[in-house]
Each structure stands twice: as C-alpha cells, then as structure tokens.
Amino acid sequence: MKKILLFTILLLLAKTSYSQKYEIGFFAGGNNVIGDIGTNIYIAPYQPTFGGVFKWNKNERVALRADLYHSWTRSVGSSVYFPDDYQHRFRNGVVNGEVGIEWNILPYNLRYKRGKGNPWTPYMFVGIGGVMFEKIQKKPDGNYKDAGYGYGVSIPFGVGYKYAINHKLVLGADLMFRYVSSDNLDYSDTKKLGNLNTDDWFTTIGITLTYVFGRDACPCGQ
Q: Which CATH class is domain 21-213?
C-alpha cells in the first residue's frame, strides 16, 4: 500500500512538473494617483509606467503572476482641493512590486491549438505587494526638499484580456487598481492637506507582451 501511495505521489509530481509553462515579458502604459491632490478621475493614464511581468501557468484556469513596475506620477488638471496653488501639486516616482493570482474566465490554451480550449480569455487578478515612493520634507523657510523614500503595502486587483498570438508570444491588456497603505504618494500627508484619514490609490492601464517558455500547461499532459 505504501509503495502504491508513493508511486501515486511521484506520478502526480511528475505530471505537475510536466504541466508547467512560463511567460516573461514587459508592461507599458500609463498611471494616475487617486489622492487628496490632483485629478479626481479614477482612470487617467497621463503619466508613463514601464515594467516586467512573469507568469507561471499552473493550468488552463490559474496562473501565478509577479510584476515589477516603475512609474512617473504627477498631479494633472485641477487639484481636488487646491485648484489654484502650484505648491499644492506634486511630482513623484513610484516603484511597485507584487505577486498574485490571475484567474482565466475561459479555459485558456497556451499551446495555440484550435479546438482545444481558447487562445484568448478575459481574466481577473488579485494580489499583494509593496510600493516605494519619493518623500519630501518641509524646510524652515517653508519650502520643501527631498527626504529619501517612503514605503507602503499595496493590494492590487483588476481585470485584463490576453491573446496567444502564436505558441511563443502572448499579447495582453491590463487595468489595475492598487490600494496603498500611505497617504503620501501625493505628498498630502507631509503638507497636511486634504483628508489625512484616507490612504491613496494608484491606477495603471496598459499592454503586456510576454514570451512563452517551458513545458505545456495542458492539464492532460499531452
């Protein structure tokens, strides 16, 4: 009985190992901060975001995903609370890294064989991560200076769509919202502006292009 159990476990491990297939590539798009300063539009990709994407396709429904992005942010248009004061605008650099689960709404077939699953699918994403952003400090003369970096936890979630161009390339589109455990992406906490009891949000929208490598993610092992 023990030998049968051991053989079964080894067989499952071998099958799981065979079914792994990976993607690596880049993200390019835009972003905006939803905070106390700047536009109050939720999706406003005025500033650029670039980064890398890695996916581990466990099966046709689930992929584990890791992202690392760098964004240039600034207030655009009228500020929510301070429309006429340039000192109450902001420019910031934000780096965010995260891991999470990508759930395919349709059975997704990376092997790009018609009639066996879909070479395209919409998907949902949820995860956890962290952000690093530039900080400022008030000087005795009332102006502000750079003060290193601040950090926060982020909770990303969103939706997307991906299409296997062929058996090696996948084109995708993402819309991601990120809650950030800081009220200082827009410097409002340092400047004591707006509602200090609320944290900031960070939105990105853009495209991904990934290269597929490794063994098939087919659950049948063919």
A: mainly beta
Q: Residues 98, 103, 106, CA angle at the centre, nearest 5°?
A: 150
pTM to 2 decimal places:
0.79
Q: Flag whether pLDDT at 12 surpasses 50.
A: no
CA distance linking residue 219 with residue 222, whole number of Å: 8
- Token code pair at residue 168: 């090696």
* Residue of 153, 202, 151 whose CA lies nearest to 181: 153
189 φ, ψ (degrees, to nearest 5): -70, -45
Give me 93's structure tokens.
């650099």
Identify the CA nearest to 40 among candidates 214, 207, 194: 194
Calculate Rg over the CA atoms of the chain. Answer: 22
* Domain ranges for the chain: 21-213
| Rounded to 5°, angle at Cα 24 from 46 and 120 | 80
58 and 64 in contact (C-beta within 8 Å)?
A: yes
Q: What is the dihedral of CA 74, 78, 83, 86, to 10 degrees?
A: 30
* Each residue's pLDDT tens digit, 140-167: 776 766 667 889 999 999 999 999 998 8
